[in-house]
Write a structure and sequence with these properties.
It is a single chain. The protein has 319 residues and is an alpha/beta fold. The chain folds into 2 domains: 127 residues, ornithine cyclodeaminase, domain 1 (2-Layer Sandwich); 170 residues, Rossmann fold (3-Layer(aba) Sandwich), CATH 3.40.50. The model has no long low-confidence stretch (mean pLDDT 97). Bound molecules: nicotinamide-adenine-dinucleotide. The site of nicotinamide-adenine-dinucleotide has 28 residues, from helix 3 and helix 4.
Length: 319
């Protein structure tokens, strides 16, 4: 097997590569060629979470698992809070083929999913990007969003305002004016990305105007929540995988409150493959519940492996 260390990933997989790989992954799910295995996610105490996301893509010949989680004390130790590794196996024989560093890949594949939702569902003329959250993933999210729409400014809110200047610096790099705002002003945004580890809703239905597209990316565990459940009742809801959306995603709360039915949630892959038309009016609120599926991790890890093999980099080990 080949070990592809974290330090090599930035040279092997670009944001555009991730976008293409994740669109392919969502299409394979919509076509019934690929499915995710049930997620294992355990609380380790002190806010630490650890788990496994895995799946099989028959069309792409990918089988594997991402092991990792969220360790909120890491920032104080000079590490990012998300830590993960992806293990790939030959689907015919079960032999391990690769161990791939998963930290940057997670940020790239999560930002790609959000950007695909924006590319497919936001109004073409969207100009104001709203950011709720300013942690590690937020900068990747903003960069990926800026690749798919011509934004002319960014407004942002974060529970911890001291984290906002880092996001502002990335906006400056992208040439976008940046303003920290109270949540009430999110109503000015055409696209809103939420990417926090919040345990309760921050963004309320009243903070969102007609025609907005939301990419809700932070809720990936039971008990987390970023937006008011009533917002999902008002919106047309899309997701990466319905089973995850209703159990560990943002939709878990609207489902529990009886405000949303699972049957009303559409896989984003159905929009990619043309089975669903996507946005149907300029006033419609569209909401992507991005929970993060194992197949996304396999898709970008397989791409990193392919590139590493082509370039003769990585560490070969016998297993
Ligand atoms: P981070 O630790 O770098 O940043 C955390 C963010 O959440 C910051 O903006 C912080 O201010 C905010 N926050 C913390 N506690 C909060 C609270 N009580 N209420 C409101 N906001 C709060 O984390 P990150 O790596 O940027 O990840 C952000 C979230 O995205 C996490 O919940 C993580 O699990 C999730 N995530 C989801 C996916 C996916 O595929 N959907 C992938 C990676 C990460």
């Amino acid at each position: 097997m080949l070990i592809v260390p974290e330090a090599l990933i930035a040279d092997l997989v670009s944001p555009q590569d991730a976008f293409d790989a994740i669109e392919g992954c969502f299409a394979a799910m919509s076509n019934g060629d690929a499915y995710n295995f049930p997620v294992v996610r355990e609380a380790l105490g002190e806010g630490r979470q650890y788990g496994f996301k895995s799946g099989l893509d028959r069309a792409g010949a990918q089988l594997g698992v991402k092991a990792g989680g969220y360790f909120p004390g890491n920032a104080d130790k000079g590490m990012i809070n998300h830590q993960s590794s992806v293990f790939l196996f030959d689907p015919e024989t079960g032999r391990p083929t690769a161990m791939v560093g998963g930290n940057l890949l997670t940020a790239l594949r999560t930002a790609a999913a959000s950007a695909i939702s924006i590319a497919r569902l936001a109004r073409r003329e969207a100009r104001v990007l709203g950011m709720v959250g300013a942690g590690h993933q937020a900068t990747f999210q903003m960069r990926a969003a800026a690749r798919v729409r011509q934004f002319d400014r960014v407004i942002a809110w974060n529970l911890h305002p001291d984290m906002l200047p880092k996001l502002g610096a990335v906006a400056a790099e992208l040439g976008l004016p940046f303003e920290a705002v109270p949540l009430e002003r999110m109503v000015e945004a055409d696209v809103i990305i939420t990417i926090t580890s919040s345990p309760a809703a921050s963004l309320m239905a009243a903070h969102v105007g007609p025609g907005t597209h939301l990419a809700c990316m932070g809720t990936d565990t039971k008990g987390k929540q970023e937006v008011e459940a009533a917002l999902l009742a008002r919106a047309t809801v899309f997701t990466d995988e319905v089973a995850q959306s209703i159990s560990i995603g943002e939709a878990q709360h609207a489902i529990a409150a009886g405000l949303l039915q699972a049957a009303a949630i559409t896989p984003l892959g159905d929009v990619v493959t043309g089975r669903h038309p996507g946005r149907q009016s300029a006033e419609e609120i569209t909401l992507f519940d991005g929970t993060g599926v194992g197949l996304q991790d396999l898709a970008v890890a397989a791409m990193a492996l392919r590139r590493a093999q082509e370039r003769g980099v990585g560490v070969k080990v016998a297993v």
